[in-house]
Specification:
The chain is α/β, with parallel strands linked by helices. The chain contains 21 helices and 31 strands. Among the domains are: 150 residues, Rossmann fold; 127 residues, ANL, C-terminal domain (GMP Synthetase, Chain A, domain 3). A hairpin with a 7-residue loop joins strand 14 and strand 15. The longest helix is centred in the first third of the chain and has 17 residues. The two termini are 21 Å apart. The chain binds adenosine-5'-monophosphate-propyl ester (PRX). The site of adenosine-5'-monophosphate-propyl ester has 23 residues, from helix 12, strand 20, strand 24, strand 25 and strand 27.
Length: 651
């Protein structure tokens, strides 16, 4: 793999700046001290963090109960996430935070709201009472399908206050995807909005909810935030406006004392089958993980303004827009719209306007901005920035250097953070004051995380060799299961090696032991940092009457990391061509959401298969990325000749 070769030649090293180090939250002296921290006893390390960083109503009796692959952390402990994220910032020595900005929100049209901790407390209590009023009880699931508005944060915290698990469905998903997720989680209430703003216009959300709910008999109530005021249709008795319910709600609501292992949320993510997995996270361990990592890695201080650009509909938004920052009493920025509206400098204008100090985004966004030109960041004062982060996909050294030079003005440490929906929080990352960085490497596991690289037989590979990324010991933020499917949980993550978590990524370690993440090794694609399963797109395609068979692969893309290419065999009656191309792309967007729309569809009279009937995916990947060519991509390709040449190789 030439890309691995070239990455491993990367020799630039950026040492922590002494001045940064002096003021840092975690400022141990040497990188070796970080390597040792928590290594001997991860349990002891995490217990210390749980005690120091969280407020517990009742202390735990046992740190870890590990019956592989099922873990329980802080057994017997009781706490409440909304209490930790809000109430405790209004009391005792923290009481001064009452009037501190908890959430700085900016809408795409330029409207804004600053919500203080005291105000957040009032709103969360009120909405918790609204939920109770509507019949939501501890243990129930609530589905949140919303744009990036403050009410989403309030609704999440309100769920945690009463012990209802939220299941957030990204607003870009289609009504079909929403329906399936509501039903799988058996949610009884949906919180949504009439719509949100994107690319300069209001986009409606409520119609998708109405469509989905036609197939969701379990949903009793819908709460609708008024955002774009397009006069969404409301179903009598089922649908209620947020502001009307909130007008009469009491601002007093005691936080429920919840078991450490009480379900906190379900978040659906793509796997290797057509059916998304509901990843389950629980209360005490998850909050310990995100609170601790947030404080150490982002070096948060009370004076800081922190902005993570992720949508709350993804795990990054859960852990590092909401829970990690608020549990630390930080000021977190939420932005509703696209990065390039009204102009390509919107993000930089936001950094200047709010004085953002810590900025966390995805490599795809960085690559997009490189292409848009340096003049846009250069036209704004970005001197408030003091730390930068990336997440979601491997960052190429070129993008890393641009981020360092043009955005960070060569003075901000960059933390490249590797983790997943399943891991809950950051797993491999530099500690900014302690670990020297190298462009393209996520460097070292966070203390208390035992990551390694295995070969197919479960042996650790030598430094310098590649293999599969694994985690050998349980960690507090780990997923507790796949909602309703313990068997799939076991097989997907723990089937290959005994008691060892298989991440699904390929990785290398260099001589220093630094990790270099090479991307997915399964049939999951990473499109702009978002996971889409090839099977999901395939099943969407074959659900169309004109498609006989479909195979989907990823091809490298300069901006989005990976682009979706679909090879489609039309049915006898359908005609390959532009018309069908358009129809099928729209069909996938309708079935899953716009992020899953193939960049390219190639029609073929038959998919190349081995003698044993397996689709030759490697060949398709080579064709898609232009390494192998049929010379014909306009109408029906004949892949049979290439298939014959390759057959013995792929069988
Ligand atoms: O392939 C890895 C990639 O994103 C996957 C996880 O996707 P998701 O669950 O959607 O969570 C994304 C945000 C945490 C991983 O299996 N990935 C994530 N962070 C990095 C990364 N690849 C390389 N470097 C990273 N820093």
């Amino acid at each position: 793999m030439p890309d691995i070769e070239s990455l491993l030649k990367e020799k630039r090293v950026f040492k922590p700046d002494p001045e940064f180090k002096r003021q840092a939250n975690w400022n141990k002296k040497t990188v070796d001290e970080y390597r040792k921290l928590g290594a001997r006893s991860p349990e002891r390390f995490w217990a210390k963090m749980a005690k120091k960083n969280l407020s517990w109503f009742t202390p735990w009796k046992k740190v870890l109960d590990w019956k592989p692959p099922f873990a329980k952390w802080f057994v017997g402990g009781k706490l409440n996430v909304s209490y930790n994220c809000v109430d405790r910032h209004l009391e005792g020595k923290n009481a001064w935070r009452r009037n501190k900005a908890a959430i700085v929100w900016e809408g795409e049209p330029g409207d804004s709201r600053v919500i203080t901790y005291a105000e957040l407390h009032r709103e969360v209590c009120k909405f918790a009472n609204v939920l109770k009023e509507l019949g939501v009880k501890k243990g129930d699931r609530v589905c949140l399908y919303m744009p990036m508005v403050p009410e989403l944060a309030i609704a999440m915290l309100a769920c945690t206050r009463i012990g209802a698990a939220h299941s957030i469905v990204f607003g870009g998903f289609s009504s079909d995807a929403l329906r399936d997720r509501i039903n799988d989680a058996e949610a009884k209430l949906v919180v949504t909005a009439d719509g949100g703003y994107r690319k300069g216009a209001g986009f409606p959300l409520k119609p998708a909810v109405d469509e989905a709910l036609a197939g969701c008999p379990g949903v009793e109530k819908v709460v609708v935030v008024e955002r774009i005021r397009d006069g969404a249709s409301m179903v009598e008795g089922r649908d209620h406006y947020w502001h009307e319910l909130m007008a009469d709600a009491s601002p007093k609501c005691k936080p429920a004392k919840l078991d450490s292992e009480h379900p906190l949320f379900i978040l659906y993510t793509s796997g290797t089958t057509g059916k998304p997995k509901g990843i389950l996270h629980t209360t005490g361990g998850y909050l310990t993980h995100v609170t601790t990592t947030f404080k150490a890695i982002f070096d948060i201080k009370d004076e800081d303004v922190y902005w993570c650009t992720a949508d709350i509909g993804w795990i990054t938004g859960h852990s590092y827009v909401i829970y990690g920052p608020l549990a630390n009493g930080a000021t977190t920025v939420m932005y509703e719209g696209v990065p390039t509206h009204p102009g390509p400098d919107r993000w930089w204008a936001l950094i200047e306007k709010w004085g953002v100090n810590i900025f966390y985004t995805a490599p795809t966004a960085i690559r997009t901005f490189i292409r848009l030109g340096d003049e846009h960041p250069k036209s704004h004062d970005l001197s408030s920035l003091r730390l930068l982060g990336t997440v979601g996909e491997p960052i190429n050294p070129e993008a890393w250097m641009w981020y360092h030079r043009v955005i960070g003005k060569k003075k901000c440490p960059i933390v490249d953070t590797w983790w997943q929906t399943e891991t809950g929080g950051i797993m491999i990352t530099p500690i900014p004051a302690g670990v020297p960085t190298t462009p393209g490497s996520a460097t070292l596991p966070f203390p208390g995380i035992d990551a390694a690289i295995y070969d197919d037989d479960g042996n650790e590979v030598r430094h310098g060799d590649g293999g599969l990324l694994v985690v050998r010991k349980p960690w507090p933020g780990m997923l507790r299961g796949i909602w309703g499917d313990p068997q799939r949980y076991k097989e997907t993550y723990w089937g290959s090696y005994d008691e060892t978590y298989l991440a699904g990524d390929g990785a290398h370690r260099d001589k220093k032991g630094y990790f270099w993440i090479m991307g997915r090794v399964d049939d999951v694609m990473n499109i702009s940092g978002h996971r889409i399963g090839t099977m999901e797109v395939e099943s969407a395609l074959v659900s169309h009457g004109d498609v006989a068979e479909a195979a989907v692969v990823g091809r490298p893309d300069e901006i989005t990391g990976t682009a979706i290419v679909a090879f489609v065999t039309p049915t006898g009656t359908a005609e390959a061509g532009e018309e069908l191309d358009k129809t099928l792309k729209a069909h996938v967007a309708k079935q899953i959401g716009a992020i899953a729309r193939p960049a390219e569809i190639r029609f073929t009279d038959a998919l190349p298969k081995t003698r044993s009937g397996k689709i030759m995916r490697r060949l398709l990947r080579d064709i898609a990325s232009g390494k192998e060519s049929t010379g014909d991509t306009t109408t029906l390709e004949d892949l049979s000749v290439l298939a014959k040449l390759r057959e013995s190789e792929e069988d």
